[in-house]
């Protein structure tokens, strides 16, 4: 059923943790078993693994059982109010999350545009130790031109240099998102990732037709 499908990409600057976040998503949805999981699972090319960058877009299909819950450590944050359009019959239902991993490097804008064109939504990942970068904005504006639903995310909240409040204010000033709509996660530890998966189901609309 189309209403149980979510197609999305991740927009992020190089080294902002996109590949690690993708790994955690696949781990939580058991798309890849723990024993088979390795760093940068979606990066297949030797050069990608050597340089730590994504060059070629890579799709992955994840199965996620929708059970509204709050991730550990987030119970007392405004994120508890992120549910926008869940339905009662979604409870315990299986959703198909199609993630298209995209390059973060400036030289691969065409690969990013191809990915975004096949999606209804995008997860905007910003490193909470570095803030928004110019290439991130370029890809974001591309997604907005395609009328994609954007989910803003602050990553690497586990690091000592993380400045969640400053970066959240920065996102609000530059992009207009309310601070309470920004999800805080750690791709490394998995904190907040389950809430992100839940929000993808709730915010991103299903496709109107199957892509071939």
- Proportion of helical residues: 25-40%
- Neighbour order of strands in the largest sheet: 2-3-1-4-5-6
Number of strands: 6
What is the residue-averaged pLDDT? 79
Structural class: alpha/beta
Count of runs of 4 or more consecutive helical residues: 6
Cα-atom radius of gyration: 16 Å
Strand content: 15-25%
CATH topology: Rossmann fold
How would the global form be characterised?
globular
CATH class type = Alpha Beta
| N-end to C-end Cα span | 16 Å
Total separate domains: 1
Give an overview of the whole structure:
With 212 residues, this protein is of the alpha/beta class. The chain has one domain: P-loop containing nucleotide triphosphate hydrolases (Rossmann fold). It contains six helices and six strands. Helix 4 links the parallel strand 4 and strand 5. About 13% of the residues have low confidence.
Describe the structure concisely.
This protein has helices at 18-28, 46-51, 109-117, 134-145, 164-175, 193-203; strands spanning 5-12, 58-65, 94-101, 121-127, 149-155, 183-184.
């Amino acid at each position: 059923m189309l209403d149980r499908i979510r197609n999305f990409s991740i927009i992020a600057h190089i080294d902002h943790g996109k590949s690690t976040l993708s790994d955690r998503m696949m781990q939580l949805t058991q798309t890849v078993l723990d024993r088979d999981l390795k760093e940068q699972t979606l990066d297949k090319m030797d050069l990608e693994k050597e340089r730590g960058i994504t060059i070629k877009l890579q799709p992955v299909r994840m199965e996620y059982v929708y059970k509204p819950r709050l991730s550990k450590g987030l119970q007392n944050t405004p994120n508890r109010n992120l549910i926008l359009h869940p339905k009662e019959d979604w409870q315990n239902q299986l959703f198909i999350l199609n993630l298209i991993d995209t390059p973060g490097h400036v030289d691969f804008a065409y690969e990013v545009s191809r990915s975004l064109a096949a999606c209804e939504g995008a997860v905007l990942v910003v490193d909470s130790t570095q803030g928004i970068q110019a290439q991130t904005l370029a890809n974001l504006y591309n997604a907005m031109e395609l009328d994609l639903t954007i989910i803003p995310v602050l990553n690497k909240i586990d690091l000592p240099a993380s400045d969640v409040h400053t970066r959240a204010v920065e996102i609000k000033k530059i992009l207009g998102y309310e601070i309470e709509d920004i999800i805080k996660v750690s791709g490394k530890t998995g904190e907040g990732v389950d809430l992100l998966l839940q929000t993808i189901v709730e915010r991103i609309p299903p496709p109107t037709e199957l892509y071939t």
